[in-house]
Amino acid sequence: MSEVISIEQELKKSYLEYSLSVIIGRAIPDVRDGLKPVHRRILFAMHELGNHYNRAYKKSARVVGDVIGKYHPHGDSAVYDALVRMAQEFSMRDVLVDGQGNFGSIDGDAAAAMRYTEVRMSRLTSEFLADIDKETVPFRPNYDNSLQEPEILPTKVPNLLLNGSSGIAVGMATNIPPHNLGELCDGLLHLLDDPHCGIGELIARIPGPDFPTGASIHGGRGLVEGYTTGRGSIKIRGTVEVEERKKGHSAIVIREIPYAVNKSSLVEKIAALVNDRKIEGVSDLRDESDRRGIRIVLDLKKGFIADIIINALYKYTPLETSFGMNMLVVAGNRPALLNLKQILEYFLNHRREVILARSRYDLRKSEERAHILEGLKIAIDNIDEVVSLIRSSKTPPEAKARLMERFSLSERQAQAILDMRLQRLTNLEREKLLEEYAELLKLIEYLKSILENEDILRGVIREEITDLKAKFATPRRTRILEDLEGIDILDLIPDDEVVITLSRRGYIKRTRMDNYQQQRRGGKGIAGVQTGTDDFVQSFFTTTNHQHLLLFTNLGRMFLVPVHQVPEAGRTARGAHIANLLPMDKEEFIAAAMTLREFSPQRYFLFVTRRGMVKRSALDLYKNCRSIGLIAVTLRPGDELLEVKEITADDEILMATKNGLAIRFRGHDVRPMGRAASGVRGVALRGGDEVAAGVVFSGGERTEILAISANGYGKRTSFEQYPLRNRGGLGVINMKVTPKTGPVIGAAMVKPEDDLLLLTSANKIIRLGVAEISTVGRATQGVMLVRMEENDTVIGFDLVEGAENVETEG
């Protein structure tokens, strides 16, 4: 009769057995030697082959064949992959296999076939298998019960933390980073001296992982959590240097990359981001790495700040990665999540058990040898009688029995006497025998003290750890830095005053304010930006590096660019094209630009169009600007966005036209509207007139309107001379426009302490004090501000607040 089995119970039982097999026997390392079964079997097979560090290399295929034939009945590729990894300097903090041949690269290149490569154990690996023949660790039958293999290696090396481990089992995974051997030894010695120490004291001696690829760790709280609880996250950043080149150019050089990052993939990722313009300012990208180390070079365009590009590399590429610490191990034949102290305690306990087992073995062997020497000593002391007894015996068994009876010897002692060579009867050999016996008695006493005295046992462990550090410790490769959370790239950039220049054809640049010097009214100016013959400067204003640059296009779209990301250039340089920064259409250009520190909900944007429309919208509607821009205002057919200003509901607005008219009305006459609204009429235009400027009056010190004409004339007029009207009217005279003055090109609120920067179509810039410009009535043409060349016009201006009046160039 067949047995009835529950499928559910059988599946549970079978899957549980499978899970435990994967966890214990494949994917998770043992806490004692830090090895998975495949790595343990590889090292033991190499030991059995005599493939030691001071002997000849053997073909990898020979080692792999022994491993899969004797201990590990799995695929040869799995065993060879494990063998290769133990020989890779970029994978292991301290390699366990000394490889000869092609063992792959950090670019992800595969190793050569096992028939081509050769291996032997590294010098450090000899410490893994020391004393394995002294009954220090338990052995078990191999898969076919024909051989014995060790359940664990009697390692002197804290390999679990030294080289780390990663693996995925059923329902759980492990990810342990590598560490520095010298620091691990320091931590073990401290724990040995003070078993009740806190984890903080161990962290002071083991401050963090030490990756074979170097780089930097930004751990902070995540690292402490990892060491305290077994789980945590740390950030790894590649090492980057900035090299200064000729003519103001610079280059970013990546010297080290994060652990487990494929260098070739990193270079490809950077190249893709540069091509997609997500990383700006890179003119060339090269991988100059060789056997001496990693060297990835990014040549920068002139004017771009290296720190900004480095920050983008950390943000968008694997040059910065997170390492999730999950210190899951096999402890006591079951999976366990351990903290730093527990892992070190398990290793010390393992060393304690190994040393005790070794001492018991050595003690037994020493006592056996001493027992033999005692018998030999008796024989030598009674040599004549012993010789006579042996000669008179008919057979060796009879001689052995008579010796045992006559001198009260054991069977082993009697056999040793019978096996003794005649040369041992010389005086010299007798002295050696007595000396060996005395040394053995001392050794037996010492071994017994190890087994009986805990302090002496700790001393042996301490001596081994100290010797291990002296022989194999190497300097730390990975730098440990403070946690970078909360650090802004702006902290690296001074908030200097700068001039932003934008040409009609879209060339933009950022220039330090100290490149421009003040002049008297009527000066010729100094050379400004060198644009092409068919280009001119459209926007020209001052700001600081830490502000946001808001760029509004003629089609009503808005883009946001941090000021410090605008390419820096000299006073006469053309700058970089705006297409390198913004995804604009062919028929689109920047119509208005302004800077802002924060998007306050109590303030508004005032939009002014060429056809006299105005709109007021809250600033916070525009703070979430995507890289492709957003719709700032919906324009009517034939209209263009002219100007954008900051405003509050209590401010007043003045709109000035090209033909010299202006209208003043209250800000709250323009009700708040949504982001995509079109707005309302601000001024009625006649005779082909257009709006030249929109001015906001907020009270305060600036109480005068400065009007500038195309031919270099300007005047100051008190704001009170403009009557307050309802919006939508024709307005009043603002400036007397004549062929001599040319049309009005702009207007602004000023105070006498301000400085004025004028830009001409001949690319000349003049800086003068506002106080030098006469204050006159509305219906006047003003005074000449700058001497104009033939066919030259004023095309832009901006104000500088609180400058000193110093004449420098006339």
Write structural notes for this entry.
The chain is α+β, with helices and mostly antiparallel strands. It folds into four domains: 31-155, Alpha-Beta Complex (Topoisomerase II, domain 5), CATH 3.90.199; 239-318, Gyrase A, domain 2; 351-472, Orthogonal Bundle (Topoisomerase, domain 3); 493-800, DNA gyrase/topoisomerase IV, subunit A, C-terminal (Neuraminidase, 6 Propeller), CATH 2.120.10. 28% of the residues lie in helices and 25% in strands. Strands 14-9-8-17 form a four-stranded mixed beta sheet. Strands 10-11-13-12 form a four-stranded antiparallel beta sheet, with helices on one face. Strand 10 and strand 11 form a beta hairpin. The longest helix is centred in the middle third of the chain and has 42 residues, at 340-381. It is elongated and about 150 Å long. The chain starts with 6 loop residues before the first helix and ends in a 10-residue tail after the last strand.
